[in-house]
Write a structure and sequence with these properties.
The structure is a single chain. This protein is of the alpha/beta class and 359 residues long. The protein has a single domain (3-356), classed as TIM Barrel. The protein contains 17 helices and 9 strands. It has helices at 3-13, 23-28, 49-58, 61-65, 68-82, 95-99, 120-124, 131-134, 136-148, 162-171, 179-187, 189-212, 230-248, 265-270, 284-291, 310-323, 344-356, and strands at residues 86-88, 105-107, 110-112, 154-160, 217-222, 254-258, 275-277, 296-298, 330-331. The strands form 2 sheets. The chain has a 7-stranded parallel β-sheet with strand order 1-4-5-6-7-8-9. Helix 15 links the parallel strand 7 and strand 8 (296-298). The N and C termini lie far apart (41 Å).
Length: 359
């Protein structure tokens, strides 16, 4: 059976609960739970042989993302194999930039935007971006996944935060120094503000669109926020993240992730999201003290530990769980994404340890 027909057939084979009693959702509300829910960032990906088989058939990453049935299939693969407590849609944070009229490419070295934004005219030429029209395949993929999930598994959607999307749009891809970004940010703050305001609008619409099509919780990825000092984050990025968070509050739970951003932890908590993801370089027990009950916390095993052995993964996962035992609002995850070289048996050990743990 082809990956497409597998995903499509599951629409009729299972139906997901729409209730709010799923373990992940209860943890995000900081309610008592029988154990910490577990899922992994990048849990659908290259470490799985079944994913690699679909990618080879599809002909590339972007083709998979934009094919609703293939995206649904690879989203469901890790749930079938490991039965995490949440499935996160197989997609990409840069899709809203494409919806706004930017050319988007992917190859083995990652994403690129061949015509980066460097002037005010470039920014003003962007389209508003309509998720219902430009990203309809995302909504369809969510519907297919929702229909194929076990009743106890929550469905997650996601988007990139305005600052991180701006980083890609201005640099034309990933960067080590973010020279072009910082030149525009410092030299033409009015244009930078205009760009982030537009990005905040499209990100908000994209997240709400995902919620309308079945996402029960959402993740906002601010991958490059940690490259800013706290002063610059508060001035240039935080107001636009706050706009997105406010638009979602009371509507759907939202998890904030900022890469290598321990210095921004209090700012993340101050937005009052449902949860803040904690980087693996931080002490999770200390993070709970710093959070002061304002939100749930997600994390934070070092994804590099998943490159070890199942026995070591179990030991380190149990130690992490023990360090925050009794804390409400803990969602077990890695501190960043699963690495492509990860052995699936180590992922299995991580999930099994979580599922066997008790508060």
């Amino acid at each position: 059976m082809s990956p497409k027909s597998t995903a499509a057939s599951q629409v009729h084979a299972a139906s997901a609960s729409t209730g709010t009693d799923k373990l992940l959702l209860r943890a995000l509300r900081r309610e008592p739970t029988e154990r910490a829910p577990v899922w992994l960032m990048r849990q659908a990906g290259r470490y799985l042989p079944e994913y690699r088989a679909v990618r080879a058939q599809a002909g590339g990453f972007l083709a998979m993302v934009q094919d609703a049935e293939l995206a649904a299939e690879v989203t469901l693969q890790p749930i079938r194999r490991f039965h995490m407590d949440a499935a996160i849609l197989f997609s990409d944070i840069l899709l809203p930039l494409q919806a706004m009229g930017m050319e988007l490419r992917f190859d083995e070295s990652g994403p690129s935007l061949p015509k980066p934004l460097r002037t005010r005219a470039d920014v003003l030429a962007l389209r508003p971006g309509d998720p219902a029209a430009d990203l309809a395949y995302v909504g369809r993929a969510l519907e297919l996944v929702k229909a194929g999930l076990p009743r106890d598994v929550a469905l997650l959607g996601f988007a990139g935060a305005p600052f991180t999307l701006a980083s890609y749009a201005i640099e034309g891809g990933t960067s080590k120094s973010f020279l072009e970004l910082k030149k525009l940010m410092y030299r033409d703050p009015a244009t930078f503000e205009t760009l982030l305001a537009r990005l905040a609008d499209v990100v908000t619409r994209h997240l709400l669109f995902q919620a309308e099509h079945g996402a029960e919780a959402l993740v906002l990825f601010d991958t490059w926020a940690g490259t800013l000092t706290r002063e610059d984050y508060r001035r240039y990025a935080a107001p636009h993240t706050a706009r997105v968070v406010r638009a979602l509050q009371g509507r759907v739970p939202l998890v904030l992730f900022a890469g290598q951003a321990e210095h921004l932890f209090e700012d993340q908590c101050a937005f009052e999201p449902s949860a803040v993801a904690v980087d693996h370089r931080s002490d999770l027990a200390v993070a709970f003290e710093r959070a002061r009950g304002r939100c749930a916390l997600q994390g934070n095993l070092d994804p590099g530990v998943l490159l070890s052995t199942p026995e070591e993964v179990t030991r380190r996962t149990q130690a992490l769980l023990d360090s925050v035992r009794g804390r409400r609002g803990h969602v077990l995850n890695v501190g960043h994404g699963v690495l492509p070289a990860t052995d699936p048996e180590c992922v299995a050990a991580f999930v099994e340890c979580a599922r066997g743990s008790r508060p």
